[in-house]
Amino acid sequence: xxxxxxxxxxxxxxxxxxxxxxxxxxxxxxxxxxxxxxxxxxxxxxxxxxxxxxxxxxxxxxxxxxxxxxxxxxxxxxxxxxxxxxxxxxxxxxxxxxxxxxxxxxxxxxxxxxxxxxxxxxxxxxxxxxxxxxxxxxxxxxxxxxxxxxxxxxxxxxxxxxxxxxxxxxxxxxxxxxxxxxxxxxxxxxxxxxxxxxxxxxxxxxxxxxxxxxxxxxxxxxxxxxxxxxxxxxxxxxxxxxxxxxxxxxxxxxxxxxxxxxxxxxxxxxxxxxxxxxxxxxxxxxxxxxxxxxxxxxxxxxxxxxxxxxxxxxxxxxxxxxxxxxxxxxxxxxx
Length: 335
Fold this sequence. Notes:
Layout: E1 2-12, H1 18-29, H2 32-35, H3 39-65, H4 72-88, E2 92-101, H5 105-109, E3 117-124, H6 131-145, E4 153-156, H7 164-174, E5 184-189, H8 195-199, H9 223-238, E6 245-249, H10 263-272, E7 278-282, H11 291-307, E8 312-315, H12 323-334
Parallel strand pairs: 1-2, 1-3, 3-4, 5-6, 5-7, 7-8
Helix pairs in contact: 1-3, 4-12, 7-9, 7-12, 10-11
């Protein structure tokens, strides 16, 4: 009997058209885990502000990063799907799904609706796991498989934010940069609502002074603490001194709701107040290049840095189909 591997990435519109981008944004911004908006407050913003105003602006932004083969996130994730299947062999079947839009989780799961599958292993393609996001994926899967005549075991792979092979693969890719030519290094992570952090740590440990200074039993499940630990491990492997890097988080539609420090604020401060001219940015929460890396960091943050006096902001590309990353991902699937 085979093991089904369900790879889950964040999501992408079907095309950069206004219609498809509007549908994508409505789903993303309706999700309180992403937007930071409560259920009571989100109906008006989603149906009016997003649909009527933001879709056109976002569509133009997506068009700037769209490839001749389609969405960069879908393209890179699909390559990972095929390469991983080849590496794992005949005892596994790999299917890709997106949390938002297509290919949907429901569609991907249908390929496991056979008695030949003894287990479905869910692998989230973001190394640092939020409990809220994982629980949401779990509920989506449960709503589908609970209707099957034969329900296989469903197991979630552990987060791999500090996995030795993951860190090694990312660091090796980063070593091609000459760090002496940059004033500072930023480790920029995906943003989540700050309120979710409190749910992920014991004894109200999160959001206290220096709560992420070290990874402990109290904060081991906290997304922010996992991000800081990833940054520490990468900095050590890349031989970047603690004074030469910072950790920041991408903002949410409600900027005040996101995990701090917010990337835009950090970039502005480094350029304007500290006079830094050259920044190197890593995005270790994104295993595939996507809108958040290619446009938000590669275009918007670069413009913001220059606006406040900086000269050069360079983004290291995501691991995408890197061979060492495929080795690390295969071990996550087997583990």
